[in-house]
Write a structure and sequence with these properties.
- There is one protein chain.
- With 146 residues, this protein is α/β, with parallel strands linked by helices.
- The protein has a single domain, classed as Glutaredoxin, CATH 3.40.30.10.
- Helix content is 29%, strand content 27%.
- The protein has a 7-stranded mixed sheet with strand order 2-1-3-4-5-6-7, covered by helices on one side.
- The radius of gyration is 16 Å and the shape is globular.
- The protein starts with a helix and ends with a strand.
- InterPro entries: DUF411, Thioredoxin-like_sf.
- It comes from Vibrio breoganii.
- This is DUF411 domain-containing protein.
Length: 146
C-alpha cells in the first residue's frame, strides 16, 4: 500500500507542475578530508542520502557544471542536477531545490569558511561567509550571506 501511495503522490506532483526533487547526493572528496565527512553527516541528519566518492581528482565534475575556479572548495556534491561546492548550509540547498531559480547551475561556499557546516563546532552559528550562485552565462551572485 505504501508503494501505491508513493506512486500516486509522485504522479500528483508531476501533473500539478511541481518538481519532485531527489534527496540523493553524490559527493566527491579526498579520502583524508574530515570536514567533508562532517558536512555529509549534517546533510544525512537533514534527510539526504549521501553517496561519498573518495578520490584525489574530480575536476571533470566541476568542469561539467561550469563551476568557476575561484569558487573551489574541498569537496563537490551533485544533487538533482545542481552542483554544490564546499560547505554550503543545508538550508540553502533546500531553498535551491524548492525554488529552482532559472539559470543557476549550482552553489558554492568558496574555500573552507571557519564557521560553516562541517567546519564549525556542533551547535555554533554559521557566520562569516557567503554562499555564491554560479549561472549558465558564467556570472556569479551572492545567494545568501552568513
Amino acid at each position: 500500500m505504501k508503494t501505491v501511495n508513493k506512486v500516486i503522490l509522485t504522479a500528483s506532483l508531476l501533473f500539478s507542475g511541481l518538481s519532485y526533487a531527489s534527496n540523493n547526493i553524490e559527493m566527491y572528496k579526498s579520502p583524508s578530508c574530515g570536514c567533508c565527512t562532517q558536512w555529509a553527516n549534517i546533510m544525512e541528519q537533514k534527510g539526504y542520502q549521501v553517496d561519498i566518492h573518495q578520490q584525489q581528482d574530480w575536476t571533470n565534475v566541476k568542469r561539467e557544471f561550469g563551476m568557476p575556479a575561484k569558487l573551489q572548495s574541498c569537496h563537490t556534491a551533485v544533487i538533482d542536477g545542481y552542483l554544490i561546492e564546499g560547505h554550503v548550509p543545508e538550508k540553502e540547498v533546500a531553498r535551491l531545490l524548492k525554488e529552482r531559480p532559472q539559470g543557476i547551475k549550482g552553489l558554492a561556499a568558496p574555500g573552507m569558511p571557519m564557521h560553516s557546516p562541517g567546519m564549525a563546532k556542533p551547535g555554533d552559528e554559521y557566520k562569516g561567509f557567503d554562499v555564491i550562485a554560479f549561472h549558465d552565462d558564467g556570472t556569479t551572485s551572492v545567494y545568501a550571506e552568513y
